[in-house]
Design goal:
This protein is an alpha/beta fold and 151 residues long. It has a single domain, classed as Collagenase (Catalytic Domain). Helices cover 47% and strands 15% of the residues. It has 6 helices and 4 strands; from the N terminus they run E-H-E-H-E-E-H-H-H-H. The protein has a 4-stranded mixed beta sheet with strand order 1-2-4-3, sandwiched between helices. A hairpin with an 8-residue loop joins strand 3 and strand 4. Helix 1 packs parallel to helix 4, helix 3 packs across helix 4 and helix 4 crosses helix 5. It starts with a strand and ends in a 9-residue tail after the last helix.
């Protein structure tokens, strides 16, 4: 399910829900993924609470606790503000940017970690971005090299 708390022109929950399912199939992630599209303030609060980082961020991934009944893979939170800014900066639609962030978050839910995996997530994200018809990957844009080192 996609919940939009911060409205952005051109964003439709149904389109994003279909994309979440496509991304999960592409990553081979079993279970449902719930997505919250929210504002920078709420993202900062979530980031501080769960990662001890008192700054806003573009996407957060929350894997489901093991052993819970049901088929939930986890939750994602996405900053509509950052997605809008990135879309403008990189010359594509906001919906495309949110899809990029969803794919990035789904990869994290599947266990990938670009800060520790020597480029495995970046390679997978690049390949899936091409398969899913998305613009440049998040990892490519952040200037990270394999292993999470900054360029």
């Amino acid at each position: 399910m996609v919940t939009v708390k911060k409205r952005v022109p051109g964003i439709e929950e149904a389109i994003l829900e279909r994309f979440v399912r496509r991304a999960c199939r592409a990553v081979k992630l079993a279970g449902a993924v719930d997505v919250l599209i929210t504002n920078d303030r709420e993202m900062q609060i979530l980031n501080k609470r769960y990662r001890s980082e008192d700054v806003t961020t573009d996407v957060l991934s929350f894997p489901a606790a093991p052993g819970l009944p049901g088929k939930l893979a986890g939750d994602l939170a996405i900053s509509a503000n950052i997605a809008s800014g990135n879309a403008k900066d990189f010359g594509h639609e906001v919906v495309e940017e949110i899809k990029i962030l969803i794919l990035h978050g789904v990869l994290h839910l599947a266990g990938y970690d670009h800060e520790r995996d020597s480029g495995q997530m970046a390679r997978k994200e690049r390949r899936l971005r091409a398969e899913l018809g998305l613009p440049m990957t998040l990892i490519d844009r952040t200037g990270e090299e394999p292993g999470g080192r900054k360029r």
